[in-house]
Amino acid sequence: MKAGNEFETTLNPEQAANILHISKATLANWRSLRTGPNYIKIGNRCIYKRSEIERFLREHEVRLDE
C-alpha cells in the first residue's frame, strides 16, 4: 500500500486476465481450483491487487540462464 489513505491499485477480473494474457474464463477456473493469483472477494465480486498479478508473473518466470 502507499503511504497515507491511498490504497494500492486493484484490477477487475477482465483487467487481470488481460495482463496475464488469458481469458476471464481461465481466471475464473483458476479461482475455483484455488490456483492462480491471490484475489480479494467482496460480496460476489473478485478484485486483484496489481502487485499480486506482478508477483504471480515473477513466480512463473522461466529463467534460461539457470
Write a structural description.
With 66 residues, the chain is an alpha+beta fold. It has one domain (10-59). 42% of the residues lie in helices and 15% in strands. The protein has helices at 13-20, 24-33, 50-59, and strands spanning 10-11, 40-42, 45-49. Strands 1-3-2 form a 3-stranded antiparallel sheet. Strand 2 (40-42) and strand 3 (45-49) form a beta hairpin. It is globular and about 45 Å long. The protein starts with 9 loop residues before the first strand and ends in a 7-residue tail after the last helix. 11% of the residues are buried. The mean pLDDT is 92.
Task: Profile the largest sheet.
Answer: 3 strands, antiparallel
The assigned structural class equals alpha+beta
Gyration radius, to the nearest Å?
13 Å
Strand order of the largest sheet: 1-3-2
Element layout with pairings:
Elements: E1 10-11, H1 13-20, H2 24-33, E2 40-42, E3 45-49, H3 50-59
Antiparallel strand pairs: 1-3, 2-3
Helix pairs in contact: 1-2
List its traits.
66 residues; alpha+beta; 3 helices
Please sum up the structure shown:
By secondary structure, this protein is an alpha+beta fold. The protein is 42% helix and 15% strand.
